[in-house]
Amino acid sequence: MANEKQRKLHAIVFPLPYQGHINPLVNLALKIASKGLAVTFVHLEFVHRKLSKAHHNKTTDVDFFSEARESGLDIRYATISDAFPLEFDRDANFPQYWDFLFRDFPAYVDEFIGKIVQSDLNSDYFLIADACYAWPGTIAAKYNLVNVVFSTEAAQVFCLVYHWDLLSENDHAPIKGNIDHVEIDYVPGAKSINTKDLMTYLADPESIVSEALYAGLYLDNKKADFILHNTVHELEFEALSALNKHQPNYAVGPTNLFKDNATNTVSKSLWPQSDCAKWLESKSPGSVLYVSFGSLVQTSKQVIEEMANGLLLSEVNFIWVVREGILDSGDTNHVLPVGFEDEINDKGLIVPWCDQIMVLSNPAVGGFLTHNGWNSTLESMWCGVPMICYPITYDQPTNAKLVVDDWKIGIRLCDYGVSVDRKVVAEKIKSFMSEKSFREEAEKVKETYQNALKNDGSSERNFDQFINDLKKKLACRIDN
């Protein structure tokens, strides 16, 4: 028994290989290590290579957790191959790559975890994997590991997917025929939602993404011992309470903003750095609209042009992050209207990268025009900045619905669809930036989020409860 008490609890952490999934899980890993547990964080080799290049390190032995380890945390770094050449363009071959992640990657993970577990018999391992993966339940069971799922989506989104069967029974996953504007009010824990606000991956069951997420988010997650959510209890307690009737669920977010924050280091490394601070200092409080869309979303040239002209017509100050990956051509000079940067003068600032939290927390910023990826939505709420919502895909429409209808901290740029008109864009921006009520509501949400991460806040208490429950679960498995 004395030896058993000295055994180290050790997390093996697998993020989905996309920036919006990596960042919150990096911070979760650091948080777990801060509780005295060991952590091995596993990147795919192509992600490791991208980060290595961004850090301008010519060696391949880059350790992104070295600072944390120097401070006494037991956090390790490992890589795993996905069998594709490093130069293979995984974004350009998205369906092919997702098919691999769904069907073939689990065998690589199985072998990888088997070697780790067998190499150290003095540790009690448990698995923490992104909720989108379809393999954790099977592999955890094979190696008798406690299975912890981490959801990088809103709890409302997770709750809807958790009841994929109910949506299917009611012809709402996918929508059959020409059913439009139907309210869904039968999912336990989920607030009433229009079918047009559902996640886009529910619409096409034939796509590899939908098939993979059905296997992961719906089927495999039901095998989890614990489910962690990157949200706060106060804003999504109905969904979390309903989910707790099935499995232990914990709202521990926003993990992007944990005090032991290594996320910014990773994020900054991927994009050229630009300093917006001096420009913001010259603007009056609440006068600047921050515009940024996720790098994985392909936005058409026409939309970008209409956005650009709408911003000019609005006469509102703005910072616009236009970076590689957001545009069809990948070349901002060919997509932004000719002469646009000259015409904006000092009213606008075009940058390829910025520290998003730094910008959103600046008093000059009064709004955020966003696709509503969950990380950006969290960061906007954390800073008390209301949003103009322009969702395109995945969970973005549902996140926008939460922002606009449930939390009253934003507006939609357009009703249900992706087409935009420059005059409408200008009118919406003008009206939004002059409306104080959104800022007032956003300040209330900001207080809720920041209170959750205080020492006695709900997310801190939930995290401590998770660690205690995890230790009890591991102890039971050892005894058995």
Automatic annotation (TrEMBL):
The answer to whether UniProt assigns keyword Metal-binding to this entry is: no
> Per its UniProt record, what Pfam families does this chain match?
Glyco_transf_N, UDPGT
Q: Which UniProt keywords apply?
A: Glycosyltransferase, Transferase
Provide the Glycosyltransferase N-terminal domain boundaries: 12-49
* Entry-linked CDD domains: GT1_Gtf-like
Question: Superkingdom of this entry's organism?
Answer: Eukaryota
Q: Which family does it belong to?
A: Belongs to the UDP-glycosyltransferase family.
The entry's protein name is Glycosyltransferase N-terminal domain-containing protein
Q: Which organism is it from?
A: Rehmannia glutinosa (Chinese foxglove)
